[in-house]
Model the fold of this input.
Amino acid sequence: MQRAWLDVQADRVLAAYATRYPDGVPEPTAVEARQLAAIERALAAAVPVGGDARRDALLAEVYADPFDDGPRAVLADHLGASDDPRGEFITLQLVPSPTATQTRRMTALLTKHARAWLGPLEKVIAKEGVEFRRGFLAACRVKLKNAMEAERYGHDPSWATVEHLRFTGTRFSNQAFSGQDSGVFAVDPVMKSLRDVNLKDDVDLARLLEHAWPHLERLATSTEHPLGEAGLAVLHATDKLPALVAIEMRAPPKNWLASATFGKRLRHVVLGLAEGRDVASWLPELARLPALETATLHVPRGGEPQTFARDDQHKLAPTRT
Done:
């Protein structure tokens, strides 16, 4: 209860500072800097009540290499020895082919404990869209209200296991757009497992491409609003997305997809067509993508999207609905 109360108070203070200083909190004075340093020293020297150093060390190992199940299994054994239900849950999710009974047990554990197992990220993760895999958070939707929240939560090591990340409010073909409030987009190199992310505009894209994303397979931008010329140029030439095989975006200029650094790898494409470009005019261009398996084209003015797939002759043919 005390921790929950402190979290509420901290959030109120942060919200007040964000309102008072919309351009960022000013640098502390010399006196304030000394006071902050003293607080940091005291916190570093404090021993957490009920702490579990072994658990924390094993969690750090999981986050250091989220692709290795070994540390997860060791952590599960450690937690199970103290009757922590998280240990049982991790063990069950590491089972390659769980039985129906095991699946029901996992569901029951998640229903009861999922929000608690989100840890510090619980404050910024929406209730819908949460998925755990191999015992840890793997997919979620995030709403960061401002830059202060992004700074507070965006670098947490527990993001390391997240593979699919949605930022709520972003214009996205299969999600609603919440008015003009698009939230804050924040990605960090700690997100080592990231395979799928959505963007809103050139600013988001620039932030994403500040770092390399060796496992990112799918990138989604708005299908309604095009990237600017600068964003298109940067994305077209990037070498920071070596695993990219799926893209969703407003239809780019002619020949852009086929000549992009990732064009020969693209297997799945979703495009929002601009006025004046009909579906038929796009098929020859899509046919130039050698690895393409499926393409979905969203036509203007709310028309039904049309999906195409390679047929036996490797030609793009409309799929049956």
User: Anything to note?
Assistant: The beta strands are 131-133, 136-142, 164-167, 196-198, 218-220, 246-250, 268-272, 294-298, 306-310, 316-318. Residues 2-20 form the longest helix (19 residues). The longest strand covers residues 136-142. The mean pLDDT is 86.
